[in-house]
Design a protein that fits this description.
The complex is a heterodimer. Chain A is mainly beta. Chain A is built from no helices and eleven strands. The radius of gyration of chain A is 13 Å and the shape is globular. In chain B, strands 2, 4, 5, 9, 10 and 11 form a six-stranded mixed beta sheet that branches. Chain B starts with a strand and ends with a strand. At the A-B interface, strand 4, strand 5, strand 9 and strand 10 of A face strand 4, strand 5, strand 9 and strand 10 of B.
């Protein structure tokens, strides 16, 4: 089946630093990828839709200047959390859809901001 | 009203039990529906798609009632390995578009 990889799997950083998370579709091309965030014991919440070659579409309440998304190729999207703060600590998951499928998720990145 | 609503559980059942999860969605124009499984601190994994005619995959049966905007998942002969959170997921517009997740229903199967 389709595989989506994500890197890094875990990040611990100091408040104020920026963190970049990569999401790759390994055996299919994804013109669209999605970035989700999941706080403990809560559901996945869509943050933004990443479109290859164009600007990302952000969900209401998500700051586009804080969560920078770049989708430079058909297999790679990056999410950069700028000036991270403790409240940004969360599980960030990307997703890409292979034609006809429900969507495959990366293994997630657990971000802890101290 | 939430776009996708599920009973959070937890459902604590013995091995071999049959358990059913329910889910309702608010957007009557929603195009496709899925059940995902999420283990603790892991990413969600697709369990099965849900079709209007109902579909079965081994011990798992999914059903969709578009008129009632209701989705169900039935697990028969529960195994310890079925313990996880089950997420009801809706694609409101079809195509390669975003998925809307329910908060999940936690299942704990005990010996």
């Amino acid at each position: 089946g389709a595989v989506v990889s994500q890197h890094p799997s875990r990040v611990i950083c100091k408040s104020g630093t920026s963190v970049k998370i990569e999401c790759r579709s390994l055996d299919f091309q994804a013109t669209t990828m999605f970035w989700y965030r999941q706080f403990p014991k809560q559901s996945l919440m869509l943050m933004a839709t990443s479109n290859e070659g164009s600007k990302a579409t952000y969900e209401q309440g998500v700051e586009k200047d804080k969560f920078l998304i770049n989708h430079a190729s058909l297999t790679l999207s990056t999410l950069t959390v700028t000036s991270a703060h403790p409240e940004d600590s969360s599980f960030y998951i990307c997703s890409a859809r292979d034609p006809g499928q429900g969507g495959f998720f990366g293994p997630g990145t657990r971000l802890t901001v101290l | 009203r939430k776009e996708v609503e599920q009973d959070p559980g937890p459902f604590n059942v013995p091995e071999g039990a049959t358990v059913a999860f329910n889910c309702t969605y608010s957007n009557s124009a929603s195009q496709s529906f899925f059940w995902y499984r999420q283990d603790c601190r892991k990413e969600p994994k697709l369990l099965m798609s849900v079709y209007s005619s109902g579909n079965e995959d081994g011990r798992f049966t999914a059903q969709l009632n578009r008129a009632s905007q209701y989705i169900s998942l039935l697990i028969r002969d529960s195994k310890l390995s079925d313990s996880a959170t089950y997420l009801c997921v809706v694609n409101p517009t079809g195509g390669y578009n975003k998925l809307i997740f329910g908060a999940g229903t936690r299942l704990a199967v005990h010996p």
